[in-house]
Structures are given as C-alpha cells and as structure tokens.
Amino acid sequence: MVHRLFLVLAPALLFAQLQTPDWVSVESNISYSKHPETVLDVYQSKRAPAPQTKRAGVLVIHGGGWGGGTKENVFERLCLPYLQKGLVVVNVEYRLSRAALAPAAVEDALLAADWFRANAAKYGVDKNKIIVTGDSAGGHLALMVGMTPKQAKLGPPAKVAAVINFYGITDVQDQLEGQHMRQYAVTWLPATLPDRQELARRVSPITWVRKDLPPILTIHGDQDPTVPYAHGVDLTKALREAGADAELIPVAQGAHGNFGPEKDAEIYGLIFNFLEKRKLL
Question: What class does CATH assign to 25-277?
C-alpha cells in the first residue's frame, strides 16, 4: 500500500515526500539541470533483475496545466504499474509557469530525457528501451520529448523508444483563443510573450508530425472538458497519414483525469500489449 503524502521544506520549494511500498527503492530529488525545480526521482523494484540485466525504463512527467501538480501526485497511477512490471521509473519535476513561462517546461523535459539516457547504464536500463509517458500537460511534454526535432531550438532532441500519452495537449495554439481557449494555456503563454503564436507553434506536438518518430499511443476520454478529445484524434490521424506508428485508445464517456481503477487496469493491459508488440518489454 502507498501511504499518504506529507510535506517538508526544501530549499526554494516545498517538495512532497512520498513513502513508497517496501518493495520499491528510491533515489529522491536528483538534480538534472541548474534550476531548483529541475529534480527527479529514480524508482526501482527490489524484485527486479540485477543491474547487469538490461531492462526497459520509463520517464514519467506529471500534468497540471504547466502550472500545478507534482511528481509525487502521479506515483500511484503513472509509476506503480511500470514498477510492477520490473521497469526502472524516472519521475520528473520541472519548472511550472509560476517559475518560468513557455517554453521552459519543454526544455526541462528534454533535459530530463537526456539525463536518463546518459545514466541508463547506471540503473541497468537499455538506453534503446526508454519510454516516456505523462498525463494532460505531462502528456504534452511526453509528446514533445518524443517528437521535438533539432530545428525546434528547444533543447537536445531526445531519443526514446515510445510515447504513452494520456490526454495531452497536442495543439497549444488551439488553446490560446477561440472555443478551446483554456486559462492554463494563456497563463503559460501570456499575450506579453514576444512572438507568442510562433512559440505556441514550436511547442505544439502537431507541428512536428513526421514518419520518423517513435511509436506513439494516445489515451483520451471522448468527453474530456479540459483537453478536447479532438486533440488526441487529430494527432493520431496526422501521424498515421504521415506513416508513423500511432494508435489511439478512446475512453467512452471518459472525462479528464482518472478513469477509475477498473478502466485504468484495462488501459494498462492495452499499453503493455502495445509495448510488447514493439519488443519494448
């Protein structure tokens, strides 16, 4: 059982400290960049193979509209299923909008992916089997990790083996104005930013659709009031038309966030099947 969270004061931040199950080991708040917010946790199952046995790893990025949420909040839902499968999990914190506006979160996510690849051998991870996942704004960042090319000028292009996107924003421009305008997007990319529309285009996964991408699986509720279902549909359609490996799991009557334990268990069964077919598990 995962115990409740409690808060302790850390330099410049309140970090939520998580008590993990006794079969999980953790290295907490490892710095991967120069900012106080740019830290990550590394989780491993004590039952997993010895470090010399190469295994898959997963980079986890929490959501919260680029302005909220914590890595600890997604441990049970986004980290635990992979730990139960024996993967090494790297759970990422990044600069939220109150600390830095766009594109900071994307830059941080790319650096976290670079850190994981550079440190893969230390944790017994096959660097060619690193998966990235996230929910909502974390899904957007996971997609950007998997899709951002050098010409985007957002940081070092990441090398990941697959993206598991839970209802992530795929078109940031769509959320800055019009019927799909969302305050969290406007907060992250306020009108005061220079070249705002061009920046929104650069930080949108839909901009970087092409054939040469890792497999991308999107899970999205068809009644999502926060990130329109069309974001998942349109990205998957564009990827497939470009010749990329992409699939969509629609959740009937699914809203935004947790779909419930039974549905989540079903979804993870489909996720693991997706990864096994591509020889990543």
Answer: alpha beta
